[in-house]
Design the sequence.
């Protein structure tokens, strides 16, 4: 560890101390989050300009920054599974799901998959408007190597029936560890079975049911206490994540592939506007949604992890948007592996349009466009809400269309930048599904949703 690396780490610690000072001065949690974002960007730019993204100094500094940034994301992932499990189970004990479970799950899935199909259409339109063509892109050694790796992964692609089977929890204890890409949904299914079992016990043995209810309430309070403790670390986590991201970004590659980056963000923003339209069609204020969801979307943007954002996602839905915890948990949990608008919708569709001309397919053919949208919607089942999920989704779609997968490796240098926007859109899609479903079923607390004063996510 060189003296320069020590200085860089000391600067990060000093900025964290400043955020701690703001906390002691009772600065609002949301303001501290945005302060962490701004300071992280400035620190990252300083490292980038002084040393360079690929310098030994930055390479040696980043692992130390990861202790805070990646460590914070891992803490969020640590509480994600227990939170999903106990929240779904508590929704049954509090009788908040009851006979509406099928309707709620069906609506959430319909919205998630439906918006993913729409996202695919938007991605196709954006790629067409910007005239994106993979034949125009130049492949370097890293891109060629990545392309070869993607070709090897096509063997891992499973059929739709196999993907559906993967959703079931053969070993719920394994899924509680998050070992599989579909573990979250498997945990939801397991918790739902326990919930239905509890409802049967209520009818047969009220005393036993009361004991179970009391125990679940106690565990729920314990888990939510852990969630609150971890969320209070958000400003520090965002500071370190943004410093690392900006410091290691390849701005030259971003410039060379600028048209694809711009086209991607145009599509992502367009789909986000569609989310706001959906919310407004239910009679709710889209501006209020933006105001209350902004912190969670910001963290999703910086962390690039839908799974890591899950605790913030659920707290935002329940405490700021007025979504019942049962619906929020189903929407948030399903949204991790089904219908990710950014990773499984926009991105694979854009790649398909870009790569099609390389094998003599007209990307503007109506039949081709319809096929892409259908395949994207169907293949959105089982895409993991972690880094690399978009790549796996692209492999599935391109393989189904018989398009060369290797050309997707050309975009390796701008993947992190685009993935930030994709992840934020994924999380917005799951929150939109939760809010819309709660509104349709009449379970949304409009008083909480319309209250301009919102609860701080870092509070108990």
Sequence:
């Amino acid at each position: 560890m060189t003296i320069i690396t020590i200085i860089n780490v000391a600067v990060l610690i000093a900025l964290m101390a400043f955020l701690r000072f703001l906390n002691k001065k009772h600065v609002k949690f949301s303001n501290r989050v945005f302060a962490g974002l701004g300071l992280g960007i400035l620190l990252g730019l300083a490292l980038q300009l002084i040393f360079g993204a690929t310098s030994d100094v930055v390479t040696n500094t980043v692992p130390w920054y990861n202790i805070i940034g990646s460590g914070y994301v891992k803490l969020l992932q640590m509480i994600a599974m227990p939170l999903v499990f106990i929240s779904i189970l508590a929704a049954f004990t509090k009788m908040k799901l009851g006979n509406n479970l099928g309707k709620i799950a069906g609506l959430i899935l319909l919205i998630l998959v439906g918006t993913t199909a729409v996202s695919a259409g938007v991605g196709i339109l954006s790629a067409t408007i910007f005239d994106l063509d993979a034949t125009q892109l130049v492949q370097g050694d890293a891109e060629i190597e990545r392309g070869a790796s993607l070709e090897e992964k096509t063997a891992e692609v499973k059929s739709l029936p196999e993907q559906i089977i993967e959703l079931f929890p053969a070993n719920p204890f394994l899924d509680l560890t998050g070992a599989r890409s579909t573990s979250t949904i498997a945990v939801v299914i397991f918790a739902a079975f326990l919930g239905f079992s509890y409802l049967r016990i209520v009818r047969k043995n009220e005393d036993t049911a009361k004991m179970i209810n009391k125990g679940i309430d106690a565990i729920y309070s314990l888990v939510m206490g852990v969630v609150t403790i971890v969320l209070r670390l958000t400003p520090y986590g965002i500071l370190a994540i943004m410093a690392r991201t900006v410091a290691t970004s390849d701005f030259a590659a971003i410039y060379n592939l600028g048209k694809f980056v711009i086209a991607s963000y145009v599509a992502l923003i367009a789909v986000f506007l569609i989310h706001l339209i959906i919310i407004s069609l239910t009679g709710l204020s889209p501006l209020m949604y933006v105001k209350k969801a902004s912190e969670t979307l910001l963290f999703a943007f910086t962390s690039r992890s839908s799974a890591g954002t899950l605790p913030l996602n659920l707290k935002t839905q329940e405490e700021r948007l007025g979504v019942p915890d049962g619906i929020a948990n189903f929407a948030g949990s399903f949204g991790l592996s089904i219908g990710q608008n950014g990773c499984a919708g926009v991105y694979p569709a854009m790649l398909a349009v870009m790569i099609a001309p390389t094998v003599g397919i007209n990307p503007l053919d109506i039949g081709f466009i319809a096929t892409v949208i259908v395949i994207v919607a169907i293949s959105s089942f089982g895409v993991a809400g972690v880094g690399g999920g978009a790549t796996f989704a692209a492999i599935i779609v391109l393989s189904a269309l018989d398009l060369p997968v290797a050309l997707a490796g050309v975009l390796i240098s701008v993947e992190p930048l685009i993935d930030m926007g994709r992840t934020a859109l994924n999380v917005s899609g799951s929150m939109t599904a939760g809010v819309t479903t709660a509104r349709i079923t009449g379970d949304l607390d409009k008083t909480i949703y319309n209250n301009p004063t919102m609860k701080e996510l870092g509070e108990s």
About this structure: The chain has 20 helices and no strands.
